[in-house]
Design brief:
The complex is a heterodimer of chains A (270) and B (308). Chain A has 270 residues and is mostly helical. Chain A is 76% helix and 0% strand. Chain A has one domain. Chain B is 35% helix and 27% strand. Chain B contains 11 helices and 13 strands. The chains are: A mainly alpha (270), B alpha/beta (308).
Chain lengths: 270, 308
């Protein structure tokens, strides 16, 4: 055998090898990704900042948003949503591709790399992409004077945490998918869309009827948004709720990644 | 004494209520080229996935390079090169990048990979395609790249699942030549195939598999000698007539197989047999005398042809 193969080293760093290979593939799409990551925020900033925001503030000032101007009020949600979209892109497609379409995971697993390391590697690459997307978005918020530089920097890690929480769970489901025909429709229309609309994104969750509020409670987007508002603008939520938001997201990350690691290992060993 | 790199005993794999591999025993010696021959669904690929130290077995024992692959998966896989049935290359990356990335999964250094990539590109005859995206390669080129990729770690054992299925005859011959070179270099090859000519060309020893079981084991020549006659006379009388005429042919030879399109007559001397048939005023529309092949062995063992 080749003398350069150091199996203990691969057992330590294998997930990083996978992540770096994923990033190499992702970077082949850098022009499209950059266009989406810059174009999407621009659409929102223009439509909401100039359009809806003005309307809202003409109607009720900032009384409904604890004194925060409307575009700033929704900014933490837009950032968290951008993180979720980025992580989802880089968790769902590569995973279905890896198991089903091109079976790349089987090639990776034919080396000393394990299924668990593949799961972690895909996840880490997705988070890296989210950091990039959210940072670009944040710079645009600064440029458009939506937020002032300062505490608002915390919006970036908080948004990434929200994306990480959602991504860990979605990674598990993507690894379970055997038939992909309806998965994307269901995910996009029945999970992502309602989550985006009912997570206190455009209005405080408490202004919704109580029977709709649970959508927000389970949604990582709501927890990340609330946390972001508090960190950036002293939104006025209790410190207990700050812990609840943080631990809810952290728990999803841990549970999701453990389930994903197991599922990757199990499916590759079939 | 020969060193046994793979020892399988009672190896079994079931999926829910379906038994894909049903208690098979075999060993593979160092430096030998070992084949699993059988039709689609015989359990060859499932066996290969267990040999690759990825798929877990349901029962039985398996030892690869002295280790149980289920306990020492990464350690065992560090010594294996795997060429799956379906090319699973990264289509977004170039030819050279695919090799480089794969070397990284074995933890190989950049310096080592730089030289290795040149060597493998030459081996796979892909030097001119090094910076081309995999998407743009022909089927034969992709296959050669997949094999080259399996060699980045200088494996002790190379596992090839249906290496030439889906390739045109010319691409197959190029590939056989490459595999033959590896064999000459002393690489232990384990391959599955449903092509008898491939098995005859590349395998020192093989097992014939059907429905998850091993039906026979031996060298290609040995199996033909044990399970078939020296020559085969193939006669055709036209679609419906074959079955009609068959009873009149039976007493001319020791063994006969009637297929829908032709009658196979097993004999030591095909030409002499054909003369007898003509003498008996039976006039086949076409006739062919050939040497017995593994196809005949398979037919004898299972009553079915390899490619159905």
């Amino acid at each position: 055998m080749n003398a350069g193969i150091d199996v203990p080293r691969i057992q330590r760093f294998g997930a990083l090898y996978i992540a770096s290979a994923r990033l190499r593939s992702i970077s082949k799409w850098k022009v499209i990704i950059a266009a989406v990551d810059i174009g999407n925020p621009l659409f929102y900033l223009i439509a909401v900042g100039i359009g809806i925001g003005v309307l809202v503030e003409q109607g009720s000032g900032t009384s409904g948003t604890n004194g925060i101007k409307y575009i700033a009020f929704i900014a933490p949600a837009l950032l968290a949503n951008a993180a979720i979209a980025a992580v989802m892109d880089e968790c769902v497609f590569p995973t279905i591709e890896g198991f089903k379409w091109r079976k790349l995971f089987f090639a990776q697993n034919a080396t000393p790399i394990t299924g668990r390391q593949i799961a972690v590697g895909v996840y880490l690459a997705a988070l890296t992409r989210a950091v990039f997307s959210v940072s670009a978005y944040y710079l645009l918020l600064l440029a458009f004077n939506v937020v002032d530089f300062g505490a608002s920097v915390l919006l970036v890690p908080i948004a990434v945490l929200g994306g990480a929480a959602f991504g860990a769970i979605i990674l598990f489901f993507a690894a379970k998918i055997e038939k992909d025909d309806q998965f994307f429709n269901i995910l996009g229309r029945l999970v992502i869309m309602p989550m985006f609309l009912f997570s206190g994104t455009f209005f405080p969750l408490s202004s919704m009827p109580i029977y709709l509020q649970p959508i927000g409670w389970v949604s990582p987007l709501w927890h990340a948004t609330e946390l972001g508002r508090e960190a950036a603008f002293d939104y006025g939520i209790s410190s207990l709720m700050v812990y609840v938001h943080f631990f809810y997201l952290a728990t999803l990350v841990v549970v999701g990644i453990v389930l994903s690691m197991r599922q990757f290992e199990k499916r590759l060993a079939k | 004494m020969q060193e046994e790199l793979i020892i399988a005993r009672g190896l079994t794999k079931t999926f829910k209520d379906f038994t894909a591999v049903d208690g098979i025993d075999f060993t593979v010696d160092k430096g030998e080229s070992f084949g699993l021959l059988g039709p689609n669904g015989a359990g060859k690929s499932t066996t290969m996935r267990m040999l690759a130290a990825t798929s877990t077995r349901t029962s039985g024992s398996l030892e690869i390079l002295g280790k149980d692959p289920e306990k020492f998966g990464p350690l065992v896989r560090a010594h294996l090169g795997v060429v799956p049935q379906q090319d699973n290359l990264d289509n977004d990356l170039t030819v050279a990048e695919n090799l480089y990335i794969y070397g990284r999964y074995f933890g190989l250094s950049k310096k080592f990979m730089k030289a290795k990539i040149e060597e493998l590109l030459e081996f796979a005859q892909l030097e001119e395609k090094r910076d081309v995206k995999v998407d743009a390669l022909s089927g034969g080129m992709k296959r050669r790249l997949t094999i080259a990729r399996g060699l980045v770690s200088e494996p002790d054992i190379l596992l090839l699942d249906e290496p030439t299925t889906g390739l045109d005859p010319q691409a197959r011959h190029i590939l056989w030549d490459r595999l033959f070179r590896l064999k000459e270099q002393g690489v232990t090859l384990v391959l599955t195939t449903h092509f008898m000519d491939e098995a005859e060309q590349l395998c020192d020893r093989l097992v014939v598999m059907d429905k998850g079981k091993i039906m026979a084991e031996g060298s290609p020549a040995g199996l033909i000698k044990d399970y078939s006659s020296k020559e085969v006379l193939e006669v055709r009388f036209g679609s419906d007539r074959n079955i009609e005429v068959a009873p009149q042919l039976a007493h001319f030879c020791e063994r006969m197989e009637t297929l829908p399109d032709r009658v196979l007559m097993y004999t030591e001397d095909g030409e002499a047999l054909l003369e007898q048939i003509y003498a008996a005023k039976l006039h086949p529309t076409t006739s062919l005398v050939r040497r017995s092949s593994l196809e005949d062995v398979f037919l004898r063992l299972t009553g079915r042809t390899l490619i159905e």
